[in-house]
Amino acid sequence: MNNFTIPRKIVNIIGIVGFCLLIIVFGVYLVKPNLIWFIRILLGLGLVCILAYWIINAIVSRSARYGSNVAIMILLAFAILALVNFVSARHFKRVDTTQNRTFSLSEQTEKILKNLTQNITITAFYSENHYRRKFAEDILNEYAQKSNKIKFTMVDPVSKPGLASAYKIRDDGTVVFESGERKENVVSYENEEQDFTSAILKVTSTKQKKVYFLSGHGERDIESYDETGCSELKKRIEADNYKAETIVLAQQSAIPDDCEVLVIAGPQNPLLDKEEEAIIDYLDLGGKAIIMVDPSPSASMEKLLKKWGTDVHNDIILDGLGRSMLGDPSVPVCIGYGSHPITAPLARGIMTFFPIARSLAPVKDENKDLSITELVKTSNNSWGETNLDLLMKKQIIEYNEGQDIKGPLTVAVAVTKKEKDTKTESDKFKKEKERRVIVAFGDSDFVMNKYLQQGNPDLFMNSLNWLAEEEELISIGPKSQDETPKVERLSGDTIRLVSYSSIFTIPIILIIAGAWVWWKRR
Description:
By secondary structure, the protein is an alpha/beta fold. It folds into 3 domains: 8-92 and 495-521; 107-189, 3-Layer(aba) Sandwich (Glutaredoxin); 207-475, Rossmann fold, CATH 3.40.50. It is 39% helix and 19% strand. The strands form 5 sheets. An 8-stranded mixed β-sheet has the order 6-5-7-8-19-18-15-12, covered by helices on one side. Strands 2-1-3-4 form a 4-stranded mixed β-sheet, with helices on one face. The chain has a 3-stranded antiparallel β-sheet with strand order 10-16-17. Helix 8 links the parallel strand 5 and strand 6 (242-247). Helix 1 (8-31) packs antiparallel against helix 14, helix 2 packs antiparallel against helix 3 and helix 3 packs antiparallel against helix 14 (492-521). It is elongated and about 105 Å long. The model is unreliable at 482-490 (pLDDT under 50).
């Protein structure tokens, strides 16, 4: 009987086909990892070809051991890469090397996660091709790593329509936050961290505090989307789980009992006597307010702040630092902050700026029960211009010794009042406590849509949270999408291709080169 032999050429072709099939498997996995059965079929065929190559070589050639060694090294390399990919996909650690922690969770988010006492289940519904899937998944994985109270699951609503239907999901990219009986759905395409953290606050809080904005005197409008409006500020406030509403005091007898903080944002016209009295009564009886006064005359606010230990100067702050950084001396740029919980997070070099502001100062030798903390100060190159007619009409910018107010100047103050602690029964043993009353600013422009950037939103929100006694929210909040570097949005397939290619390209090239050298030397 004649021995049956397979030509060497066919044996080599079988080996090459098996090797090529393995490369195709990884290529398909990079671009379409959801094609599981197709990947398995190709992988099976590739392994069969490689195995056949080994067996036939072992029978017909003494040099089979060399070919077997190469094949083993090839499969071993792929096995190691697959293992590394598997482990890294499930046990990853992001490291942010940017100077301002652009790609890290914000200080506020980390504080909230650290202080969680309730379990939260997060179910994110993103299809495989959703362009924000990877970004949202990374953020939510980071949330889960920061707190053992969070359980996170990523779901493809296309492959699991039943689960999506059970959650009543209508939009691809919906994230569901659950804690106890509370549930919050979030659909975010830009500011994921801000929206996700806000949802956590909503499902873990038992009460939503109200913030009222005074209206009717030309104040900043929280419903306006214009550059001079404050719609973005309203979003920030509501992101911290407050309810923001406007109030016209002329139509009411008093400030509502559910007012946690009253905001008076730059009234351009005087208040009625009735309104002024209502605000005075509100503050005297334990109310809290954020008051912003612009350089335009506002005698009622000046009188009110004087009562609470704060002088409002009739000037406009001009600043050499503002001229050098922003090209406008009437926009003081501030990086000097007083020692206070409101400004502590900003003291790491975060700047705030105040377009067309006036200066404030503590009143000397007034009520000893009041404590005034200067929060924000301008640079040494600033001064308060008191000749407003000369500045406005002739645009003459010049410091006049003895007439103008030399800097650094105060732009914001915090006011507390010593009071007896009503919780103790005996007057004899009552302890004094510092009641938080007012945070005042010599400007309202810094919170309008056009200027709500850099440290400005954090300064306002820290002031609000301090007055509302929400200490865990006093921090640097999540960055909005507009404050992060712009990058071209890539599809999910492209992101996977770039990511995995960076891992596999060099090893595959080395394997091919090694196989080619062996082929030539055999």
